[in-house]
From TrEMBL, chain A:
<keyword id="KW-0464">Manganese</keyword>
<feature type="binding site">
    <location>
        <position position="237"/>
    </location>
    <ligand>
        <name>Mn(2+)</name>
    </ligand>
</feature>
<keyword id="KW-0378">Hydrolase</keyword>
<keyword id="KW-0255">Endonuclease</keyword>
<keyword id="KW-0540">Nuclease</keyword>
<dbReference type="InterPro" id="IPR019858">
    <property type="entry name" value="CRISPR-assoc_Cas1_HMARI/TNEAP"/>
</dbReference>
<keyword id="KW-0238">DNA-binding</keyword>
<keyword id="KW-0479">Metal-binding</keyword>
<dbReference type="GO" id="GO:0003677">
    <property type="term" value="F:DNA binding"/>
</dbReference>
UniProtKB/TrEMBL annotation, chain B:
<dbReference type="GO" id="GO:0004527">
    <property type="term" value="F:exonuclease activity"/>
</dbReference>
<dbReference type="InterPro" id="IPR022765">
    <property type="entry name" value="Dna2/Cas4_DUF83"/>
</dbReference>
<keyword id="KW-0540">Nuclease</keyword>
<protein>
    <submittedName>
        <fullName>CRISPR-associated exonuclease, Cas4 family</fullName>
    </submittedName>
</protein>
<dbReference type="Pfam" id="PF01930">
    <property type="entry name" value="Cas_Cas4"/>
</dbReference>
<dbReference type="InterPro" id="IPR011604">
    <property type="entry name" value="PDDEXK-like_dom_sf"/>
</dbReference>
<keyword id="KW-0269">Exonuclease</keyword>
<feature type="domain" description="DUF83">
    <location>
        <begin position="3"/>
        <end position="162"/>
    </location>
</feature>
<keyword id="KW-0378">Hydrolase</keyword>
Length: 333, 162
């Protein structure tokens, strides 16, 4: 499967030549054709000019920048090309009047997809997972249903994730065991992987929302003030288990990523090194571009497209009142 | 205000017409649309394109208004668009006949179709345009139709059927 995302790991200069994007690094030039590029990721010191930005903006190419410590710096977000005043107004009204109607399915969907991921391990002999799986399956929908306000809903969501982290000692080797989720900055290898993976997914979702009419700042589960583009936090939520965590489990359990080789020793292994970052991104990108038969559309789509389709579902709810049900791995829709 | 494109879409698919009018247009990667756009650009170079009040004419001669389409996939929709052009021109005192040129003929055995407006037809159309305007001002788009073969090529396919 072809990827339309270009990842830049070395230092160099990005510029426009004819109608292509060129990356000049120490050992030569690389050409990125504009037509098959949708997204650029810069993980190193990269110089670029406004002339190039003009081309990027015209072609609708989104660029995400990361700093030396894998920290997300920001996104070059080209001028919007899909705008609908009618939808923007309706999105804001939906936030005001029906916030929970959108937020609840996100929490339920997350629980479902975590269930899907863990069930695999349960089937392969991790019987201790049963209790948590039952809770996700039976109790969570009821808890969510009974909730009348967003704070309570967020507490349920917190409990789901906390329970999920607890299961890691069952399914991951001891060197990756996790006591507690620590963010900004992460303090051990597993937290580093989660932070990095979540940020990657957050930026991917920004790009997908860019290609819809949705307003990136009006979110439902998360507070619109939480981040600049908080809708991306909402829409990426249900995809975390199946995209980020499955990539982590695959990399760790199949020893594609190990603590000794792929983390920065001088930083107490709390950060991926160059090799680790590349391995993780490769595995993540492959998963994102993996295709499957969509059960409603009856055509093959990639997970990346599935993120955008969730954007369409949200538009359909906002505009036409069709019930919003985010992507569910089990139903493949 | 109505445009030729809207009248075409209204005949082709009402849902598409409503969405397009409300600027819910989809990112389009379809090769057919790209070809259509390039054809339009090429025609523009031939002769000056004439644009007025929501209509863009591919060609205007002493006798005909000509609309050029890539294919004859939806002749009734293209004809409706042409009729709209004729009426707009007529309201300005310009009388012409309509001429539709399809570059590819896949369904029909001729590539050129002509049309002449009658007084009676004009009255019908004026009424129809009022109902299109009313339709566009409704709050919700009409629900997606049952999947038709033509839907599979449409940029709205995913949005309609998700």
């Amino acid at each position: 499967m072809n990827s339309d995302t270009r990842y830049i790991f070395s230092t160099g200069e990005l510029f426009q030549k004819d109608f292509s994007i060129v990356f000049r690094k120490e050992d030569g030039n690389i050409y990125f054709p504009v037509k098959d590029t949708r997204e650029l990721y810069c993980f190193n010191e990269v110089t670029l000019s406004t002339k190039l930005m003009q081309l990027l903006a015209k072609a609708g190419i989104v660029v995400h920048f990361f700093g030396y410590y894998e920290n997300y710096i920001g996104t070059f977000y080209p001028k919007e090309y899909l705008l609908s005043g009618r939808l923007t107004v309706a999105q804001a009204l939906a936030y005001g009047n029906n916030r929970l109607t959108v937020a609840k399915p996100i929490v339920c969907g997350t629980a479902k997809n975590i269930h899907f991921v863990l069930y695999h391990y349960y089937r392969h002999g991790k019987s201790d997972l049963k209790e948590f799986l039952d809770w996700l399956h039976k109790s969570v929908p009821k808890l969510v249903d009974d909730t009348g306000d967003i704070k309570q809903l967020l507490r349920i969501e917190g409990a789901i994730w906390a329970g999920f982290y607890q299961t890691f000692r069952e399914i991951l080797p001891e060197s990756f065991a996790m006591n507690k989720r620590v963010k900004r900055p992460p303090d051990n290898p597993i937290n580093a992987l989660i932070s990095f993976g979540n940020t990657l997914l957050y930026t991917k979702t920004i790009t997908e929302i860019y290609h819809t009419h949705l307003n990136q700042t009006i979110s439902f589960l998360h507070e619109p003030a939480e981040r600049r583009f908080s809708l991306s936090l909402d829409l990426s939520e249900v995809f975390k288990p199946i995209l980020v965590y499955r990539t982590i489990f695959d990399c760790v359990n199949n020893r594609k990523i190990t603590v000794e080789k792929h983390f920065n020793k001088s930083l107490n292994y709390a950060l991926l090194n160059d090799a680790g970052r590349k391995t993780f991104i490769e595995a993540f990108d492959e998963r994102l571009n993996q295709t499957f038969e969509h059960n409603t559309l009856k055509r093959r789509i990639s997970f990346k497209q599935a993120i955008r389709l969730d954007g369409y579902k949200l538009i359909k709810y906002i505009l036409e009142g069709k019930k919003f049900v985010p992507f569910c791995m089990e139903d493949k829709k | 205000m109505l445009t030729g494109t809207l009248v075409n879409y209204y005949t082709h698919c009402r849902r598409q017409c409503w969405l397009f009018y409300h600027h819910i247009n989809m990112e389009d990667n379809s090769e057919d649309v790209r070809i259509g756009r390039v054809l339009h650009e090429l025609k523009k170079q031939d002769k000056k394109e004439i644009a007025l009040e929501g209509i863009k004419l591919d060609k205007l001669t002493a006798e005909y208004v000509t609309e050029i389409k890539k294919s004859d996939a939806d002749i009734p929709a293209a004809m409706a668009q042409l009729e709209y052009y004729l009426i707009v021109l007529r309201d300005k005192g310009i009388m012409r006949k309509g001429r539709l040129e399809c570059i590819e003929k896949n369904k029909q055995n001729k590539s050129i179709h002509t049309l002449t407006l009658t007084e009676e037809r004009m009255g019908e159309l004026k009424k129809e345009y009022r109902s299109i305007e009313e339709f566009l001002n409704s709050d919700v788009p009409p629900p997606p139709p049952k999947i038709k073969p033509m839907c599979k090529k449409c940029a709205y396919f995913e949005y309609c059927f998700i």
